[in-house]
Amino acid sequence: MSSSTPSHKFLIDENVKRKLALSLKSKNFDIEIVTKAATDNQIALISKRDSRILITNDKDFGECTKQEIFSVILLRIDFEGNVIILNPNSWDSFELAEEV
């Protein structure tokens, strides 16, 4: 994998706006979108099995342990429509599209 190709793989929950998924895809990130029929357990298993970072608005995933899920980015939207990433850890230099 070249240094210009992002190495993070994402699993986009069905409750996340598609605009975010398209933004990540346009930056050449490997993304997979969860189907509406998937249960929380199935989503966690996919994340763990495929080493994908789950991006979700579902606070239930914030309680998952490392044994249950690979990694989670829990999104919150402020009153002005801006995306806020909680507990970003190593995401200090990661920028999303200007308008997500």
UniProtKB/TrEMBL annotation:
<dbReference type="Pfam" id="PF18480">
    <property type="entry name" value="DUF5615"/>
</dbReference>
<feature type="domain" description="DUF5615">
    <location>
        <begin position="9"/>
        <end position="77"/>
    </location>
</feature>
<protein>
    <recommendedName>
        <fullName>DUF5615 domain-containing protein</fullName>
    </recommendedName>
</protein>
<dbReference type="InterPro" id="IPR041049">
    <property type="entry name" value="DUF5615"/>
</dbReference>
